[in-house]
Amino acid sequence: MHAMQYELTLPADYDMDVIHARVSRVGPLLDDWEGLGLKAYLMRERGVHGSPVNQYAPFYLWNTVEGMNAFLWGGGFQGLSDDFGRPTVRQWTGLAYEEGVAVGSPALFAVRRRRPVPDGAVLREAVREAVDEAGRLAREDGAVLAAAAVDTSHWESVHFSLWEHDTPKADGDLFRVLHLSAPERTALTGGRQW
Fold first, then answer.
1. HEC profile for the chain?
2. Region 138-164: what's the mean pLDDT?
3. Residue extents of the structural domains in the chain
4. Which of 14, 121, 157, 161 is the most exposed place for a label (fewest CB within 10 A)?
5. pLDDT category, 75, cuts 50, 70, 90?
6. pLDDT tens column, 82-117
């Protein structure tokens, strides 16, 4: 599993209906993308649910590097770059994936938490804690799924979880899910990724 995200932080007075319309138009285009576990079309609005910014920030869980590369280099990503400029694309190597207790429910909200892996940390323990946290999140009321991943170029872990309600028991940035493309979600390997 590979995790990926880019963020478009928009002006404070940006009309977020533009993002809603964009997702309505392009969201279904990835509903059958080969190699894609899931893409959550995420948005947060300044002043709503405590967000300090307007932001469009899709989050991906890929089953294959080929699927991810086909999206980045084969045209899927080009439309976003043409419309907004090319953002930095963050990538993390998967550590764990868990279906949540509310697995059959629609994902309405997402939480993303990034944190550094401290210098001097015993890596085995840091990774075990990240995997355990993904499992804990998945067992919380309203959890649709949870994943953990790590970026070894910056030594940063990320936890990503989807929720059926706006009061998740997870720390991090809260986003609304505008659309969920999940063509190969059932192929995402559950549990620890090694």
1. CEEEECCEEECCCCCCHHHHHHHHHHHHHHCCCCCEEEEEEEEECCCCCCCCCEEECCEEEECCHHHHHHHHHCCHHHHHHHHHCCCCCEEEEEEEEEECCCCCCCCCEEEEEEEECCCCCCHHHHHHHHHHHHHHHHHCCCEEEEEEEEECCCCEEEEEEEECCCCCCCCCEEEEEEEEECCCHHHCCCEECC
2. 98
3. 2-189
4. 121
5. confident
6. 999 999 999 999 999 999 999 999 999 999 999 999
Model pTM above 0.70: yes
- CATH code, 2-189: 3.30.70.100
Q: Which two tokens stand for residue 46?
A: 């300044």
